[in-house]
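Record type: ASSEMBLY
Status: queued
Input:
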Amino acid sequence: MKKSIILFIALLGLASVAYANESQIWGEMRIQNILGYGQEESLKLGVLFTMLQSKYFAWVFLGVLLGVPLVFFLHYKIVGPKVFPHSHKKHYAFNLFHRTVHQIAAVSFLVLLPTGFIIVFGDFFGGGTLVRMAKNLHGLFTIPFAIVVIPMALMWLKEALFNLEDVKWFMILGGYLSKEKQIINATQFNAGQKMWYWVAILGGITMILSGAFMFFLDFKMEMLHNITGLSQIDLLRVAAILHNVMGFAVVALFITHVYMSMFAIKGAVYSIITGYVEEEEVKILHNAWYKKLKEKGKF
Amino acid sequence: MSNEMSRMKFFCDDHRCIECFACSVACAEAHELPTGISRRKVITLFDGIEGKEVSTSIACMHCTDAPCEQVCPVDCFYIREDGIVLHDKEKCIGCGYCLYACPFGAPQFPRDGAFGAKGAMDKCTMCAGGPLETNSEKERHLYGQNRIAEGKVPMCAAVCSTNALLVGDAESVSTIYRKRVAGRGKGA
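Status: finished
Output:
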């Protein structure tokens, strides 16, 4: 964990050192970059980015921002929330470290998502000071998330590995489409939570790296150019495309995460605040975990 | 004459460009650009290789279908009737998208924002200023001189000693170049 943080800081350091050298974008490379734009044998990344950004990205973001909550609104009205008694026995599942790491990531996301949307719909907000401030906050709040993403990945890795039971979970969507409380044979995390784990961790790291690329802009990492065979400007185009596409997934699953914890399962959000999960909730929604805890004499 | 033909264009005749850097220096001086920003750049390829060495001068090409204008999330670009592509620096948030879309690497970003973030984008205005009041102090400060409004040729082309750098409506530029090519019998 420490090692990876040091590596990350070192990479950022390297980037700013290289910045002082010959520009990768406005130097001699510029002619090659012009020739590489839209030519037959090139990857046409400039043309691709222009097409995606001018025609699709903002619309897809709008679709996700309105569509996902709409689906959940209908779910809430038709199927309704699952309510479990909160007076029963509890199990202390999330210690202070878990909760601190989670809360730092949560606060980062609560800034990153709205500011990201302000940038995407920048023309709606008229550009200028407000959107510029959103852009700066978007960069600034990447730092706390970047600090906790590796500890978070490690602390829940074992629980987030997929198993065969998860296929069954997906077949019935975790029983969330029925009003009845079916017993779900999930471990501490069900397949949906695991999916969010991987999107938040791998997607999150992708967002951090592609965002850092766009922030530092003009740097040279010989290794990266050699591995990918891309020029700096093409790497930036890839970063911009990835940042948007990964953004769709992160936003969609973040909204899902909030809906599940705050609305779909009444009061589930308190487990990450106090650290205690409810016996009934675990028994029904995470039965495999419940059996294991019972064996250990918990509850 | 169709509207398309009256669009303002730059063209650098690489048979004439002698890599004197006058365009780049004159531009930076005329618009009092900060260090690190050069709206116009002279680039030489195959330096010193006889018969192959070639130099050219590059800036914003004021594209007809300007990709920068298409991708800008805050819509800060506007294209004048004469085809000059300009942008509003007070709207610009310095995201860098215009640079990724630009085929010519024209947009540049001074690092003057908070925490070394990219500031508002800067690029060649074809010496036509910006959206502010023409020839106002603020326009000059943000965008440089507005020579077009004064009826003058853009600085870079005005100082080009070999007349390699041509600027004007697309038809006039191509007429001049066609004559040159016919005269020297090569270089189309």
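Annotation: The interface with chain A takes residues 38, 41, 43, 45, 56, 58, 67, 70-76, 88, 90-97, 99-105, 108-109, 113-115, 117-118 of chain B (CB under 8 Å).
Annotation: The mean pLDDT of chain B is 92.
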